[in-house]
């Protein structure tokens, strides 16, 4: 880490946590209230650094308020409670739309025929440099935490996946191209979710995770933080490797 960045982070953490930010965490980030005191302090420190280093931009007329920034930062940094991972070092900008937005889609079909169009999306991790989010969906997820869905968790999990290459060893149908415990367990969970999705069997993991290994990791991350006990009961090996990766056990403080 460059010495300037190191010293600036030290200086940022030396200052008092803003009272207005504390109020936002208390009233608008229900997950914060579930954390043990030590993790609350860790999260506050992470939020301070994250907010200083990332660019937030409201799109399609959305006003990017302090409250929106703190809420998004808090949920993004919950994934870093066990290990900061450089605060998503390659991520520069967070684009926030009022609601679902239209993204360009280009697909190649049989015979090499290419079709272009648009698709409504809630969020997107374009690459390591930027993330796109829908504020309405973030707000809905917060109000209904028991749903097991959280758009910020989902898209920032994609950032971690890209940064570490977490699903790079798994093929579209669950083939394994890397011989390590992590890959074997994620691939097995992915194939299980595909089977459950085809048979419409109820599962703690969102069926959307059956579309791609990267989506499996993101929906598994959502379940790990929001429904840890259910995930541990249904996918114990997956829960264990996620617990090791995130260096955290949400089952100790989240009741679901």
From TrEMBL:
It holds the Pfam family Peptidase_M90. It comes from the Bacteria. SUPFAM superfamilies: Metalloproteases ('zincins'), catalytic domain. This is Zinc-dependent peptidase. It comes from Rhodohalobacter sulfatireducens. The lineage of its organism: Bacteria, Pseudomonadati, Balneolota, Balneolia, Balneolales.
């Amino acid at each position: 880490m460059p010495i300037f960045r190191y010293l600036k982070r030290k200086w940022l953490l030396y200052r008092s946590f803003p009272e207005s930010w504390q109020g936002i965490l208390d009233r608008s980030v229900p997950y914060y209230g579930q954390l043990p005191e030590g993790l609350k302090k860790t999260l506050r420190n992470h939020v301070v650094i994250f907010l200083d280093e990332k660019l937030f931009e409201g799109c399609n007329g959305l006003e990017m308020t302090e409250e929106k920034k703190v809420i998004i930062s808090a949920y993004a940094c919950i994934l870093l409670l066990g290990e900061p991972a450089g605060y998503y070092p390659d991520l520069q900008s967070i684009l926030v739309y009022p609601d679902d937005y239209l993204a360009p889609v280009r697909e190649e079909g049989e015979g090499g025929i290419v079709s272009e169009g648009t698709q409504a999306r809630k969020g997107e991790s374009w690459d390591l440099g930027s993330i796109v989010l829908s504020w309405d969906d973030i707000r809905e997820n917060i109000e209904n935490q028991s749903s097991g869905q959280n758009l910020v968790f989902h898209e920032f999990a994609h950032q971690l996946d890209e940064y570490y290459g977490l699903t790079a060893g798994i093929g579209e149908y669950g083939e394994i191209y890397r011989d390590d415990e992590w890959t074997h367990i994620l691939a097995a969970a992915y194939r299980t979710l595909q089977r459950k999705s085809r048979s419409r069997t109820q599962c703690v993991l969102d069926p959307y995770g059956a579309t791609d290994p990267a989506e499996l990791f993101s929906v598994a991350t959502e379940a790990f933080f929001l429904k840890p006990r259910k995930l541990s009961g249904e996918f114990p090996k997956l829960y264990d490797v996620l617990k090791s990766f995130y260096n955290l056990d949400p089952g100790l403080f989240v009741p679901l």
